[in-house]
C-alpha cells in the first residue's frame, strides 16, 4: 500500500479537494439569502439599532425657516452706505429662538438677533456681535459682508418631501436626530432577528462547571452570543450539546422553533465525531464548503425546518473569524439590512511573512505607532490572541512576501461592530 507523504503544515490543502474561495462563498451567501423578519411600527425614540423596513421622506424642511447662525445684528445689506465704516441705529426689540420679532425691520435700521432666531422680514444679512462696537442705540462695524452672511436658508439641509433615509439602513443615534428634525415621529422597522447559539463536543463544558483533565471550557458560546447582541439581534442561548446525534437534532428542533437563524460551533468537519455535519446531512438541506481561508476551512450552511444554520469551526479563533467574515453579513441580510462589508485601511506592516498561495489569511493584529503588529502565533486555538488584537490583517489568496513597511489591509474590530 502506497502511503501519502507526511506533512508538517497542518494548513496545507489536501490534493483533489475542491476549495471554495472566500469571494465565491460571500457571493453565494449574498445571492441566496433574503430577509426573514416582519415589519413593526415603532416610535423614533425607540428605534435605535433597528433596521428600516421602508424608506423615509422628510415631513418638514430642516431648518423649517430662515434663521440666524450667530448672535449678532440683522439688517438689509442694500441699506448700508458705501463707506468703510457703517453705523446703524438699533430698532427696539429683538429676535430670539422660539421668540420671533413681531414686525418688519425699518429700512436703515439694525435689529438684535440671536442664534437660531427666525430672520424677520426686512433682514437678509447678520453681522457677528463680536465684530461690532455697540452703544445703547447704535452699532458700528466695518463693511465687507456679503448678502446672506451668517444666516441659514430654510430647507438648506433637508427639503420637505426629500428622501432622508433608505430602507435596509440600521438606525444610529445620529439618524434618530435627523428623523426627529424633519418631523418623523414613527418609523417602520424590521423585527429584531433572533439568533440561537449552540456549542457541541464531549470535551466542552460550560465555565460554570468544573472541568476534568480531558475537558475544556466553552469559550465560543459567550463570544458568539455577545457578538450577536452587539449587532442588535436577539441572542438565544441553547447551551452545550454532547456529541450525540439525537440530542443535536432535538436542539436544532428547539432552535428552529425559537430563532430565525442558528450558529453552531464544533462538529462541522467530516470526522467520526463531527455529528453536526452528519445530523444536518441526514435531516436538513445542507451544503458543506471547505473555504479557502486560514484559520477556518469547514463551514456548513444548512436549512433546518426552514431556519438557516451556520456550522462554524470549533477552534475559537476560526469560529470568530468565520463569524465575522461570513455569518455577520449573512445575518444582516436575514435581518432585513443591507449586506455588511467591513471597512479596511492600508497601513504599514510591523512584521514580515512569506505566505503560500491558495488561501486567504486573517492574522490577529493591532495598531501600534501607526503600524500593524501581528500576534506571535497563528494557531487557531490561541484565544489570547483575540483579546490581544484590536483587528485583523487580511492577506490575499495568492503568494505574498510581506516585509516590514509594506502596506497591508487592516480591519479594526470596530468595522465588524465588535
Describe the structure.
With 418 residues, the protein is of the alpha+beta class. It has 4 domains: 22-37 and 192-335, 3-Layer(aba) Sandwich (Molybdenum Cofactor Biosythetic Enzyme, Chain A); 39-60 and 169-190, Molybdopterin biosynthesis moea protein, domain 2 (Alpha-Beta Complex); 67-152, Molybdopterin biosynthesis moea protein, domain 3 (Molybdopterin biosynthesis moeA protein, domain 3, Beta Complex), CATH 2.170.190.11; 345-416, MoeA, C-terminal, domain IV (Beta-clip). Helix content is 19%, strand content 31%. It has 7 helices and 28 strands. The protein has helices at 22-32, 173-181, 220-230, 245-258, 275-283, 316-335, 384-388, and strands at residues 39-43, 56-57, 67-68, 72-75, 85-95, 110-113, 125-128, 133-134, 138-142, 151-152, 163-165, 186-190, 194-200, 204-205, 216-217, 234-241, 261-265, 285-290, 293-294, 298-304, 307-312, 345-348, 353-355, 360-368, 371-374, 391-395, 400-402, 407-412. A 6-stranded mixed beta sheet has the order 7-4-6-5-9-8, with no helix packed on it. The protein has a 6-stranded mixed beta sheet with strand order 16-13-17-21-20-18, with helices on both faces. Strands 19, 22, 24, 25, 26 and 28 form a 6-stranded mixed beta sheet that branches. A hairpin with a 3-residue loop joins strand 8 and strand 9 (138-142). Helix 1 (22-32) runs parallel beside helix 6 and helix 4 packs across helix 5 (275-283). The protein is elongated. The model is unreliable at 1-12 (pLDDT under 50).
Amino acid at each position: 500500500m502506497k502511503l501519502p507523504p507526511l506533512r508538517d503544515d497542518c494548513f496545507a490543502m489536501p490534493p483533489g479537494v475542491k476549495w471554495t474561495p472566500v469571494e465565491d462563498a460571500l457571493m453565494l451567501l449574498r445571492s441566496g439569502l433574503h430577509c426573514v423578519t416582519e415589519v413593526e411600527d415603532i416610535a423614533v425614540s425607540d428605534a435605535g439599532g433597528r433596521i428600516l423596513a421602508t424608506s423615509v421622506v422628510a415631513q418638514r424642511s430642516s431648518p423649517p425657516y430662515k434663521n440666524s447662525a450667530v448672535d449678532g445684528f440683522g439688517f438689509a445689506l442694500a441699506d448700508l452706505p458705501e463707506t468703510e465704516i457703517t453705523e446703524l441705529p438699533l430698532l427696539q426689540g429683538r429676535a430670539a429662538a422660539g421668540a420671533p420679532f413681531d414686525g418688519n425691520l425699518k429700512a436703515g435700521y439694525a435689529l438684535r438677533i440671536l442664534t437660531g432666531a427666525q430672520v424677520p422680514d426686512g433682514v437678509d444679512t447678520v453681522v457677528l456681535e463680536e465684530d461690532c462696537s455697540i452703544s445703547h442705540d447704535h452699532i458700528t462695524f466695518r463693511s465687507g459682508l456679503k448678502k446672506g452672511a451668517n444666516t441659514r436658508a430654510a430647507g438648506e439641509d433637508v427639503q420637505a418631501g426629500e428622501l432622508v433615509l433608505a430602507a435596509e439602513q440600521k438606525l444610529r443615534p445620529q439618524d434618530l436626530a435627523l428623523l426627529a428634525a424633519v418631523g418623523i415621529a414613527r418609523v417602520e422597522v424590521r423585527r429584531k432577528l433572533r439568533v440561537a447559539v449552540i456549542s457541541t463536543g464531549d470535551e466542552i463544558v460550560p465555565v460554570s462547571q468544573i472541568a476534568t483533565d480531558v475537558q475544556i471550557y466553552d469559550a465560543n458560546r459567550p463570544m458568539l452570543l455577545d457578538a450577536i447582541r452587539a449587532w442588535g439581534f436577539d441572542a438565544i442561548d441553547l447551551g452545550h450539546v454532547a456529541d450525540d446525534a439525537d440530542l443535536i437534532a432535538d436542539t436544532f428542533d428547539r432552535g428552529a422553533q425559537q430563532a430565525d437563524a442558528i450558529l453552531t460551533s464544533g462538529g462541522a468537519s467530516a470526522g467520526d465525531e463531527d455529528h453536526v455535519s452528519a445530523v444536518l446531512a441526514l435531516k436538513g438541506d445542507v451544503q458543506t464548503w471547505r473555504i479557502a481561508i486560514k484559520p477556518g476551512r469547514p463551514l456548513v450552511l444548512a436549512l433546518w425546518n426552514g431556519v438557516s444554520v451556520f456550522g462554524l469551526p470549533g477552534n475559537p479563533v476560526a469560529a470568530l473569524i468565520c463569524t465575522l467574515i461570513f455569518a455577520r453579513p449573512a445575518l444582516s441580510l436575514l435581518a432585513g439590512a443591507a449586506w455588511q462589508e467591513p471597512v479596511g485601511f492600508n497601513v504599514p506592516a510591523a512584521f514580515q511573512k512569506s505566505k503560500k498561495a491558495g488561501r486567504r489569511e486573517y492574522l490577529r493584529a493591532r495598531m501600534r505607532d501607526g503600524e500593524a503588529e501581528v500576534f506571535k502565533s497563528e494557531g487557531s486555538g490561541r484565544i489570547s490572541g483575540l483579546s490581544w488584537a484590536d483587528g485583523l490583517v487580511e492577506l490575499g489568496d495568492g503568494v505574498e512576501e510581506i516585509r516590514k513597511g509594506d502596506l497591508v489591509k487592516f480591519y479594526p474590530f470596530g468595522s465588524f461592530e465588535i
